[in-house]
Amino acid sequence: MLLEKIDHGLFKPDYQNFSLVNLSNFVLRHFNAQISHAPYPLERFISGVSDGVEKIVFFLIDALGMSSLEKILNRDRVFREYVVLEATSVFPTTTSAAITSLLTASTPIEHGILGYILYIRQLGTLLNMIELSSPIMGKVTSTLSNKELMFEKTLFEKLLEVGVRSFVLTSKTIRGSGLSTLINVGASIRSYQSFGDMFTKFREILQEDGPSFSFVYWGLLDSIGHKLGVNSDAFESELYWLLKMLSREILPVLPRNVLLIVLGDHGQIFTPWERETWWSWKDEVSTYFSVPPGGEMRMMHIYTNQPQAVIEYLSEKYRDRALVLTKEQSLNERLFGDLASIPAASIERIGDVVLIAKENHSFYFKYTGKEESLKSKHGSLTLEELLVPLMIFRR
Length: 395
Hints:
globular
């Protein structure tokens, strides 16, 4: 997979063939549903991989980057028979944008979830797209419908149109909350309370009758990476035992008509505190802001009436720390996806200036003053964040 470079160490997602968007279009094509993007070419790498497949299962491990997986597999093979392929995440490389792309088979510019925090004009405020709450005011009373927050049908709805059922297995702590209410429409939703409970219910899903697509989600690895670091013993141990349990609890009972794909939504990169840039309303840069910036710590949507002045200011002050683009430049570069047919409301959510962190730098804005420094982060376009594995299993 050859990726196009946009700056030193920063690369574009491959929406043409090898992104998470293409992978979910592979699912749609397999079940004879309508596709909107080229399917990921699994058959090119594994001949006959989908022959006789009645069920497809995605086991998504949040924050599983290709570099993290390679570190584990170099230490211990873990699995006897498997194939590892690469895919790219989307931009920004963050859970809200990436999983929404995976579960709608569309790019961020198409579905409208363009980052962790976005300015929603109809609400007149910033909205945390995971919790659907304001990072400043907390819970927001919204009259917006699901279709006004997310502009695409889910993968589950598209499969239902051709008679294929879908199942979601997720943590009890996030079932029915925030973004989940948008991206799980059309699926039969089940939840687990613990590590062991997850694998027990995973096995139950495999035994369901008829053609189906299932999405199993594990989010704890991402939390460990943020708090303790992607290079920490805790992160590596969590990932190792998660894969080890998969090899013991799921693979031996995997039905022959099931295609299991273990994947990540994005990777993480270690971000030392001395390379953090903190902003608040007291800093000179904030005089250019019309509202606080959105996005995340490795990618910011900067909303301003003076985009050129912001570009000049940031280029002078932070040239070594970030790539800064106007909204038009980010669209022309197709960072959020192709521009064939996109909602105007989606374009409105993109910052007038888009900041993309270089190397292991990061940027914070103090919304409340209670923000905490994180050991590892994601959102930018380094290979650590952009490349995710696809581990393919068939019996």
